[in-house]
Amino acid sequence: MTVLRSTLDPAAPEARAARQAMLEALDDIGAETAKAVAGGGEKAVARHHARGKLTARERIELLLDEDAPFLELAALAGYGSSFAVGGSVVAGIGVVSGVECLLIANDPTVRGGASNPWSLRKTLRMHEIARHNRLPVISLVESGGADLPTQKEVFVPGGAVFRNLTQLSAAGIPTIALVFGNSTAGGAYLPGMSDHVVLIERRSKVFLAGPPLVRAATGEESDDESLGGAEMHARVSGLADHYAVDEPDAIRIGRRIVARLNWRKAAGPVTAAPRPPRYAADELLAIVPPGLKAPFDPREVIARIVDDSDFDEVKPLYGSSLVTGWAQLHGYPVGILANARGVLFSAEAQKAAQFIQLANRSHTPLLFLHNTTGYMVGAEYEQGGIIKHGAMMINAVSNSTVPHISLLIGNSYGAGHYGMCGRAYDPRFVFAWPSARSAVMGAQQLADVTTMVSRASALAQGKPFDEDAAQVLRQAIEQQISAEAMPMVLSGLVYDDGIIDPRDTRDVLGLALSAIHTAPVSGTDAFGVFRM
Question: Which of 69, 71, 201, 349 has the most CB atoms in a 10 Å sphere around its CB?
């Protein structure tokens, strides 16, 4: 019998405390997410509606199939910066005319949809997701171009947006631009480099330079319509492939374009009607202890996200700080690596490397559930080969070609973050729970190391060491690192693709796995040299 048996008692005091802490964290995240949903605020939205225009989210809603889910990605981009939360862009994966697509919509209620450093970072991440998973890209365009005060941060890297569109097209991944308003200057290349372009009568404005700039540069007198209006591009320049009379018509045409793509997923679920987990998703709130001050069993998480709570564990008695095994999730096969007690030892690293090789041989996607403080340190472990064994695990992760998904549940520190396929190792998707923490090391440990290094430096120079000042500095460092390790900070930097409610974990991962299978899933037997 491979069905997991839960020992969680939701009524126990520690479970109630964990649930309460998680709900409070979700409230904080919900408040920031609401800012992204609000866009430029009530006045800006009202002004936009008064012009007869839909908001970015309303456009997306009409574009999607009825009752189709929308997996919004990087919703908190820009959190903690001087820019609006969300990065002036709404993006995610949704089903359009039966096809899973990557949607990227400028939010014109936020500074006219101008592109700032965070909207750029978010857009480039969306292109990565589209390329790796072979998702058609639909750009819902209405932008005044670059945010000029930040042009030095936007201009040079911003060219990758246009390069990416052409490379997606070259790879056979369709790109579609629905232009709802301004698409000017460099932004004119968004439709210019898309496979399919829809412009709207007396709404779309696509030109490299508007009338004032043309007048200043050449002395020529012109107006918006003759210079870059939809009718001109439909009749004269040929930029427009389709001419819409209004926004709903443009969305209708966009849906028809997708319907005619003859696009097919590489594979579907292997089980058409998967059984749900045997335990309630609501109980996922009660698993992670507040402050991560105690260990928790990741099998309790696995039991509440995989089909029928059925999990075939591999090497359960060896390297027990890492749980590995096979399951299905929404009918898709998946291999799971989950940290059980935080620290990774040599046995865990070798176990992980073997399991990753097995997943590649069977062409099975991998799910990494993070709760690690890193690889074990100390003379005994160094002499036992922890470096070469940790390198073996990272080698396997780096060269594995099956799709990876990372979910940060608890700690994700140091090289353990890398070994568990952190963002730098190109997982197809990275999500986080509100309980997640990620940094070079724990805040207390980092502050201790800094203090010890300062003390040793002072003694080496024969200088007195001010313990009181060191304690003040230590507290400041600990507070800084604690703040920087929080999930909203990391999500604001687009180091993950979104913070999710634990109760939604199964469905979010299911949507991600479905998107992944738009592209072929293929493993490899080519790894770097393993140090034995």
Answer: 349
> Tens digits of per-residue pLDDT, 431-450?
999 999 998 766 676 666 67
Same domain, 224 and 368: no
pLDDT at position 512 over 90: yes
Specify whether 299 is located in the same domain as 201.
no
Question: Do 327 and 188 share a structural domain?
Answer: no
CA neighbor of 417 nearest in space, from 311, 492, 502, 490: 490
Residue 3 within a domain: no
Q: How many domains, the chain? A: 3
Q: Whole-angstrom Cα distance, residue 164 to residue 152?
A: 20
Q: What is the pTM of this model?
A: 0.94
Same domain, 324 and 313: yes
Write 292-295 long-range contacts (CB < 8 A, 24+). 292/371, 292/410, 292/411, 292/435, 292/437, 294/14, 295/340, 295/341, 295/342
| 389: β partners | none
* Nearest CA among 17, 38, 19 for reference residue 27: 19
CA angle 195, 199, 204 (to 5 degrees): 130
Residues 52, 248: Cα–Cα separation, whole Å: 11
At 396, the pLDDT band (50, 70, 90 cuts) reads very high
Secondary structure class of 182 (helix, strand, coil): strand
326 & 416 share domain: yes
Q: What is the mean pLDDT of the chain?
A: 93
Residues 224, 325: one domain? no
Domain encompassing residue 31: 14-259
Distance CA 439, CA 411 (A): 9
Distance CA 143, CA 146 (A): 8
Distance, in Å, from the CA atom of 278 to the CA atom of 482, rounded to the nearest integer, reads 36
Is residue 471 one of the residues assigned to a domain? yes
**Residue-wise pLDDT tens digits, 140-189:** 999 887 777 888 888 898 999 999 999 999 999 999 999 999 998 778 88
pLDDT in tens, 45-66: 999 999 999 999 999 999 999 9
